[in-house]
Automatic annotation (TrEMBL):
GO terms for molecular function: lipid binding. It comes from the Eukaryota. Pfam families: Oxysterol_BP (PF01237). Residues 151-164 have a biased composition (Basic residues). Residues 149-187 are annotated as: Disordered. Coiled coil: none annotated. The gene is Osbpl5. Residues 167-187 have a biased composition (Polar residues). Gene3D superfamilies: 3.30.70.3490. This is OSBL5 protein.
Length: 232
């Protein structure tokens, strides 16, 4: 979101190549990074901090020295593993002996579904996709929680209808009707038949996840509207 210039080395002329407008700068995507103090020793920003600092200061000699120190540490660690017979087991990559190449274990090569996929993110090095609808990939905990809510709702509705149909004194009927009223804190969810069910709030964990999903959904819709404006 900054200015980019082209410098002609032959004649020393400088030409503006890119200068985004204030509107473009306002629409830039927010960069999400892990806080430095929360990063592990081998994450790039922490591992290369001294090299990065030297580059930012324009000290290429210092940057080269710091890079050499890191590489020597890696060589020494590899040498010690060979001497001790310790096998190196990568957490996120697998080695293909046929092609002698390394491949990311959790790569997602399925086509992007714009109607269901909201955002793709990385957590602990594992690529994950946030989806708009509840899918077969939903967690067992959330599935159990929702099923329990649906079953409780159906039982409550059945008991309510049974009580209303019975012959009771008028004052008792009024109490029955009030006891069968819909709770204020409810959410809607579609069951297997496509009918919308209203049920009480999910457990704290599921409720937090659903609220997070709504926030992401709202943000994505805003981005989609911006993209449509750009295309127009």
């Amino acid at each position: 979101d900054g200015e980019v210039h082209i410098n002609e080395s032959k004649n020393g002329n400088t030409e503006m190549f890119w200068n985004p407008t204030s509107e473009v700068r306002r629409q830039r995507l927010k960069r999400h990074i892990v806080l430095f103090e929360e990063q592990t020793d081998f994450e790039s920003e922490r591992l290369w901090q001294h090299v990065t600092s030297a580059i930012n200061k324009g000290d290429q000699h210092k940057a080269t020295q710091e890079k050499f120190v890191l590489e020597e540490e890696q060589r020494n660690a590899a040498r010690e593993r060979r001497e001790n017979g310790t096998e190196w087991k990568p957490l996120l990559f697998r080695h293909d002996a046929t092609t002698n190449e390394w491949h990311y274990k959790y790569e997602d090569v399925r086509p992007w579904d714009p109607l269901n996929d909201i955002a793709q993110f990385e957590k602990n090095g594992i690529l994950q996709t946030m989806e708009r609808h509840l899918s077969p990939r939903i967690t067992n905990h959330k599935t159990t929680c929702i099923n329990n809510q649906i079953a409780r709702h159906k039982r409550s509705a059945k008991d309510c209808r049974r009580r209303k149909a019975s012959d009771q004194p008028s004052n008792h009927s009024q109490n029955t009707e009030s006891s069968c009223s819909t709770p204020e804190s409810v959410q809607e969810l579609s069951d297997d038949d496509g009918k919308y069910l209203r049920f009480e709030s999910l457990c704290a964990q599921c409720g937090k996840e659903m609220n997070h999903l709504k926030e992401i959904h709202s943000a994505v819709l805003s981005l989609q509207r911006a993209q449509q404006d750009i295309h127009r």
